[in-house]
Specification:
By secondary structure, the chain is α/β, with parallel strands linked by helices. It has one domain: TIM Barrel, CATH 3.20.20. The chain is about 30% helix and about 20% strand. It has helices spanning about 5-25, 85-90, 140-155, 180-195, 210, 235-240, 250-260; strands at about 60, 75-80, 95-100, 105, 120-125, 130-135, 160-165, 200-205, 220, 245, 265-270, 280. It has a nine-stranded mixed beta sheet. A three-stranded antiparallel beta sheet has the order 4-6-5, with no helix packed on it. α3 (about 140-155) runs parallel beside α4. The radius of gyration is 25 Å and the shape is globular. The relative contact order is 0.14.
Length: about 280
């Protein structure tokens, strides 16, 4: 929009500025120079759940070429393995992009595997070759690596993150992790994500939902219908935040009616987490 400014107003403004400058010139050496306040460039924390609502449709794919053709609101894809142009294409199609990485385990194939100090690497994850639990108590050592991953998520254009393996205190990690150790680490992750303007999903960790609900923008769960523990996720729905999830076994009719009744966003996937998917909606 163009704004018309009269010549008279311009002349008056210039005259006023000249008076100010000449008035200050005589005692410039006596007066302190005022330094303009620098703008705060820190990203404002997002409002929890502001962009995600219960019932949000989604696609979760961590392996193989990403299927960009699905008419869903959100894609959850791997932070390291997904080319940036894929994220750009998803954004151009109006999709929210959540980026997956493991925050509780060391994976020997990741490009930043060499950045982890040996003392934070513990026991192997059963059934997952090349993956080992991390000592989440040692934030002075582990924090910079995870902060760099969050920075990468911002650089790649991710709208949010899905940190995996954030329940190591319930496993034989090789470290004496406690409930409070895990809680402190997970809250740190959420606050660091929000400080960068990123959404963050709570992955599994059902026992801590009550304590973490206010810090996370939604939840992502695996197999809660199979293990009959999905009701632990209902506080997210009550708070107006989405609950995403998958089952790897059974048929849609085994869990979809209840998932839809609770307004969960549920999928049937295979263990490879490739493009194949059957949604409840």
């Amino acid at each position: 929009m163009h704004t018309h400014v009269s010549k008279r107003r311009v002349i008056l403004l210039l005259a006023g500025l000249l008076l100010i400058l000449t008035g200050c010139a005589g005692d410039a050496d006596e007066r302190p120079v005022a330094v303009p306040a620098q703008p705060d460039l820190t990203p404002a924390p997002i409002t929890a759940g502001a962009r995600l609502m219960p019932g949000t449709t989604w696609h979760w794919q961590l392996t193989s070429e990403i299927d960009l053709s699905l008419d869903v609101a959100l894609y959850d894809i791997d932070l390291f393995d997904t080319p940036q142009y894929v994220i750009e294409e998803l954004h151009n199609a109006g999709r929210i992009v959540i980026c997956y990485f493991s925050a509780g385990s060391w994976e020997d194939w990741r490009p930043d595997a060499g950045d982890f100090p040996e003392e934070v690497i513990g026991h192997a994850l059963q059934g997952w070759p090349g993956e080992y639990w991390l000592d989440v108590r040692q934030l002075d050592l582990l924090g910079p690596v995870m902060a760099a991953r969050l920075d990468l998520a911002v650089e790649q254009g991710c709208d949010g993150v899905e940190p995996d393996n954030v329940d190591g205190y319930t496993y034989d990690s090789g470290f004496p992790l406690t409930y409070d150790d895990q809680l402190a680490y997970n809250i740190w992750l959420a606050e660091e994500a929000h400080a960068r303007g990123l959404l963050i999903l709570l992955k599994n960790d059902l026992e801590q939902v009550g304590d973490l609900l206010s810090f996370f923008d939604g939840a992502l769960n695996e197999q809660c219908f199979q293990y009959e523990e999905c009701e632990l996720l209902l506080p997210f729905i009550a708070a107006g935040k989405p609950v995403f999830g998958v089952e790897y076994e059974g048929e849609l009719q085994d869990f979809c009616p209840q998932a839809n009744a609770w307004n969960f966003s549920w999928l049937l996937k295979n263990w490879e987490l490739d493009a194949w998917s059957q949604p409840c909606w």
